[in-house]
Amino acid sequence: MTDTALNLLVQELRQPAERRLWIVDENIPPQLLAPQQGTQVVGNRFDLIRAMREQGWSAELSDFDLSQWPEACLEQIIYRVSKEKAVVHHLINEAARLLRPEGELILIGDKGEGIKTYARKAQQCLGGDKAEQKQGSVWHCSLSLGKAADEPLDDQNYTQMRELDLKDAGQYLSKPGLFGWNKVDRGSAFLIANLAEMLGRSLPLQGSILDLGCGFGYLSLNACATSAKLTCTDNNAAALIACRANLQARGYTQAQVVASDAGDTLTDQFETILCNPPFHAGFGVEGDLTDRFLQQTRRLLAPQGTACFVVNQHIPLERKARGLFAQIHCHADNGHFKLIQLSKPKG
């Protein structure tokens, strides 16, 4: 997030409010300001919500499911727009339901993130007035609730899990709000195609297995036996919901799905770790994400275990892993992705 957007957000949150909802996602730094009276936080990132709770905020981890909130219960909603259009449309629709008459929706975002279009659509949806301020490329838009439109914005049925038929990749349950929710990541497919050779044993895998950054569960569903001692973990609320649904549908009775920041809430060690680590955070690239995944992999990998990573070719995973693992091997490189085998964790 730019400093300008941060400043605008802080200015709004410091204004007194009796009943306010602050919607936060991956673009918000956790240590922004002290808890504000009358402000409830809802966010879809485990690490962020945990950090805000520790600071004293009233914060709820949710896939932006506001269905239990009563109509016309809020005087203000503050939202720094998300990366995915379906999420933004869903939350604008919810604002029309949750705001009191003449209540206010504050949208903040950069011009390159579609803020002007979102503000225009939000005004049509809420049916009230719109006031805009511009600082550089960042826009602050205040929209009041008038007569809400009969037709909501198209949010791709955001709250609904749906079945994806991905041709040769099989069928999966997924939903918007999860990165790459309607496709199979090419890196993950590359890992599955080479996994048996990497590990020197046939699929499906048995034993204790960790899917680190599981998404909707593609690696687990294609690599692991239903009887495996499987743990799947992710930071994103939509990913946790979708992964649980897929494992249940496929009969993984021994599997568990756990919220964590790169596995930091887990205590067991695993014989096999599978990982396609993210490197994007919000609208930018967060350099330390790979480091966090490697640090937790060292902690969670059994002494004789093997971790199998797939990363974009430009990620220097081998260099980053040098001080953490005694054995580091690049199994394959297809010009886009690398498959890296890690074993013998140090320390």
UniProtKB/TrEMBL annotation:
Domain Methyltransferase small N-terminal: 25-150
GO molecular function terms listed in the Swiss-Prot or TrEMBL record: nucleic acid binding; rRNA (guanine-N2-)-methyltransferase activity
Keywords of this entry: Cytoplasm, Methyltransferase, rRNA processing, S-adenosyl-L-methionine, Transferase
Gene3D superfamilies cross-referenced by the UniProt entry: Vaccinia Virus protein VP39 (3.40.50.150)
Keyword Transport: no
PROSITE patterns: N6_MTASE (PS00092)
InterPro entries xrefs: DNA_methylase_N6_adenine_CS, Mtase_sm_N, RsmC/RlmG, SAM-dependent_MTases_sf, Small_mtfrase_dom
Domain Methyltransferase small as annotated: residue spans: 173-340
Matches recorded under PANTHER family: RIBOSOMAL RNA SMALL SUBUNIT METHYLTRANSFERASE C (PTHR47816:SF4)
Protein name: 16S rRNA m(2)G 1207 methyltransferase
Species of the source: Marinobacterium mangrovicola
Lineage of the organism: Bacteria, Pseudomonadati, Pseudomonadota, Gammaproteobacteria, Oceanospirillales
